[in-house]
Structures are given as structure tokens and as C-alpha cells.
């Protein structure tokens, strides 16, 4: 993808290709804000060795945040956080069987000492994880700070310009 061409600052990973529709808004938001990022499927259960090497190399490859989406027995964010001190932002995928409550509880209930910042279930959490990652980077990247401010202003303007819900 386009954003892979520059050294990625953010890694977006997910447990399965089936998580992509949930994680797509994270990638789109980072693209819109000009945040270089990569997107990979990394499964805690089906490719555990890839998970370990991804976490082990994250810091030295320049990643400053990892957005990790997973559903059901959602061990990916927690296991990444166990193996790297790069901040992990967990996104619970809305599972078919239990609507994502299983994912949320799997991700949010981390033991003290291994933090995962946990976001809302589904696409809102995915978009917000990207905005949060951009905020984390803004201090050291003025262009990202500017893009974030512009986004927030546009969002506010859009609400104010259409504040009558009947039209
Ligand atoms: C998790 O299992 C993935 O994150 C996904 O949300 C869920 C189901 O995966 P698939 O069976 O669709 O590959 O590991």
C-alpha cells in the first residue's frame, strides 16, 4: 500500500483477513492524516512465531505505535504488549457469536504491568485508535499535528453547517 513506501511509524495488525473491514478505517484515517503505516495479518494463534518476531523488531524498525485488532479469543494485542514496549492500541472486533463483548473483555482485562490501550468495539474503535496514534506522534511531527487540527476543525464545521436534522 501507498503508506508502506515511507518508513512506517504505525503498524496496523489484525488476527485474520476477516478483520480487515473493521481495521480499514484505522488505515484510512492514518492515510488522511499523512501517517506512514503498514498493515499486516498477524495471528496470535495461527502464526505465533510471526507475532513474536513482529513484536521483537517493532521498536528497532521505527514503529511508534501498534494498532492491533482481534476478535473472539482476542489475544493478539496483549501478547504483542507482552513482547514490546512500543505502545499497543487494542481494537475489539465485533465477533459474530458474541457481538464483540468477548473481544472487548479479552483485550481490556490485562494484568497490571502489561498495558494495552483498549478502544471501542468495531469501526469506531478502529478510527479512534488511529486518531489516538496520530495524537501520540503529533508532538514530534508538526505535519501530523497540523493535519489533526485540520481534521477536527472540519469535523466541527460539518456538524455546525448541518445542525438542523430535518434537512
Ligand atoms: C481472531 O479470530 C481474529 O482476530 C478474528 O476476529 C477471529 C475469527 O477469525 P477467522 O476465523 O475469521 O479467520 O483470531
Uncertain residue ranges? none
What CATH architecture label applies?
Answer: 3-Layer(aba) Sandwich
Q: Give the beta-strand count.
A: 5
Q: Report the β-strand fraction as a percent range.
A: 5-15%
- Assign the structural class, choosing from mainly alpha, mainly beta, alpha/beta, alpha+beta, or little secondary structure: alpha/beta
**Biggest beta-sheet profile:** 5 strands, parallel
**Total domains:** 1
Main sheet strand line-up: 2-1-3-4-5
In sequence order, what are the helices and strands, one letter per element?
A: EHEHEHEHEHH
Number of helices: 6
CATH topology: Rossmann fold
CATH structural class: Alpha Beta
How far apart lie the N and C ends? Answer: 38 Å
What gyration radius follows from the Cα positions, in whole Å?
Answer: 16 Å
Q: Helical amount among residues, as a percent range? A: 40-55%
Identify the overall geometry.
Answer: globular
Provide the list of bound ligands, each named once.
Answer: 5-O-phosphono-beta-D-ribofuranose
Average pLDDT rating: 96
Produce a short descriptive summary:
The protein is of the alpha/beta class.
Kindly describe this structure.
- The chain has 167 residues and is α/β, with parallel strands linked by helices.
- It has a single domain (2-161), classed as Rossmann fold (3-Layer(aba) Sandwich), CATH 3.40.50.
- It has helices at residues 20-33, 48-58, 76-83, 101-108, 123-138, 142-161; strands at 10-14, 37-41, 65-70, 88-92, 117-118.
- It has a 5-stranded parallel β-sheet, sandwiched between helices.
- Helix 1 (20-33) runs parallel beside helix 5 and helix 5 crosses helix 6.
- The termini are far apart.
- The model has no long low-confidence stretch (mean pLDDT 96).
- 5-O-phosphono-beta-D-ribofuranose (RP5) is lined by residues 14-16, 18-19, 43, 45, 70-72, 93.
- It catalyses: 5-carboxyamino-1-(5-phospho-D-ribosyl)imidazole + H(+) = 5-amino-1-(5-phospho-D-ribosyl)imidazole-4-carboxylate.
- Pathway: Purine metabolism; IMP biosynthesis via de novo pathway; 5-amino-1-(5-phospho-D-ribosyl)imidazole-4-carboxylate from 5-amino-1-(5-phospho-D-ribosyl)imidazole (N5-CAIR route): step 2/2.
Amino acid at each position: 500500500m501507498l503508506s508502506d513506501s515511507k518508513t512506517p511509524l504505525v503498524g496496523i495488525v489484525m488476527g485474520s483477513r476477516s478483520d480487515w473491514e473493521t481495521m480499514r478505517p484505522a488505515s484510512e484515517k492514518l492515510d488522511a492524516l499523512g501517517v506512514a503505516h503498514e498493515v499486516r495479518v498477524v495471528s496470535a494463534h495461527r502464526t505465533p512465531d510471526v507475532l513474536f518476531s513482529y513484536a521483537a523488531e517493532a521498536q528497532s524498525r521505527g514503529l511508534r505505535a501498534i494498532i492491533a485488532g482481534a476478535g473472539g479469543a482476542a489475544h493478539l494485542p496483549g501478547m504483542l504488549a507482552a513482547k514490546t514496549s512500543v505502545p499497543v492500541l487494542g481494537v475489539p472486533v465485533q465477533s459474530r457469536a458474541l457481538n464483540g463483548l468477548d473481544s472487548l473483555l479479552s483485550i481490556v482485562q490485562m494484568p497490571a504491568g502489561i498495558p494495552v490501550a483498549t478502544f471501542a468495539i468495531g469501526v469506531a474503535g478502529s478510527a479512534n485508535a488511529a486518531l489516538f496514534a496520530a495524537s501520540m506522534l503529533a508532538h514530534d511531527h508538526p505535519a501530523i499535528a497540523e493535519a489533526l487540527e485540520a481534521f477536527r476543525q472540519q469535523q466541527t464545521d460539518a456538524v455546525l453547517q448541518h445542525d438542523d436534522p430535518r434537512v
